[in-house]
TrEMBL record:
<feature type="binding site">
    <location>
        <position position="79"/>
    </location>
    <ligand>
        <name>substrate</name>
    </ligand>
</feature>
<dbReference type="InterPro" id="IPR031322">
    <property type="entry name" value="Shikimate/glucono_kinase"/>
</dbReference>
<feature type="binding site">
    <location>
        <position position="14"/>
    </location>
    <ligand>
        <name>Mg(2+)</name>
    </ligand>
</feature>
<dbReference type="GO" id="GO:0005524">
    <property type="term" value="F:ATP binding"/>
</dbReference>
<dbReference type="GO" id="GO:0004765">
    <property type="term" value="F:shikimate kinase activity"/>
</dbReference>
<comment type="pathway">
    <text>Metabolic intermediate biosynthesis; chorismate biosynthesis; chorismate from D-erythrose 4-phosphate and phosphoenolpyruvate: step 5/7.</text>
</comment>
<feature type="binding site">
    <location>
        <position position="142"/>
    </location>
    <ligand>
        <name>substrate</name>
    </ligand>
</feature>
<keyword id="KW-0418">Kinase</keyword>
<comment type="similarity">
    <text>Belongs to the shikimate kinase family.</text>
</comment>
<feature type="binding site">
    <location>
        <position position="56"/>
    </location>
    <ligand>
        <name>substrate</name>
    </ligand>
</feature>
<comment type="function">
    <text>Catalyzes the specific phosphorylation of the 3-hydroxyl group of shikimic acid using ATP as a cosubstrate.</text>
</comment>
<feature type="binding site">
    <location>
        <begin position="10"/>
        <end position="15"/>
    </location>
    <ligand>
        <name>ATP</name>
    </ligand>
</feature>
<dbReference type="GO" id="GO:0009073">
    <property type="term" value="P:aromatic amino acid family biosynthetic process"/>
</dbReference>
<feature type="binding site">
    <location>
        <position position="32"/>
    </location>
    <ligand>
        <name>substrate</name>
    </ligand>
</feature>
<dbReference type="GO" id="GO:0008652">
    <property type="term" value="P:amino acid biosynthetic process"/>
</dbReference>
<keyword id="KW-0808">Transferase</keyword>
<protein>
    <recommendedName>
        <fullName>Shikimate kinase</fullName>
        <ecNumber>2.7.1.71</ecNumber>
    </recommendedName>
</protein>
Amino acid sequence: MKIYLIGYMGSGKSTLGKILAREKNMNFIDFDEYLEEKEGKRIADLFKEKGEIYFRKQEACYLQELLDGFDNTIISLGGGTPCYGDAMQRIKAAEGTSVYINVKVEELTNRLSSQRDHRPVLKHQDTPEKLEEFVRKHLFERSFYYNQADLKIRVEGHTVAQLISELDEKLF
């Protein structure tokens, strides 16, 4: 069994994935960490030194590695991973189940406000208003891809334990 968690940055994919993997005795891969390990650099440094085009090309290659291998694994994909090239088509065609972790714009903005320095695409969103506008626009653009997931989980008003329970019920 393979589960691909998709959704916007800050949606809780890694948090939920780690807990669910531990509870179900599955492996867990955070795709951002996987990519950083393969490249030997942090994503922020890759963006700065080689640019987003290089990053997205490498991301597509490493995504294929994850799609082709790693059974009994929950994979937390990067926020943009399903939104470039044919990535979402490849995810849908691969063995496994994709799950969209859907979080409202206001909650995402709240979560991301303290993480701007660690997320290259948020670096220039220096006011709460700019950040919310950016997240709203970005989420709108990406929702076409996210909504193609096999399952959708709405985070609104739920605790982590409730979300894990919902994931457990829908997936197992």
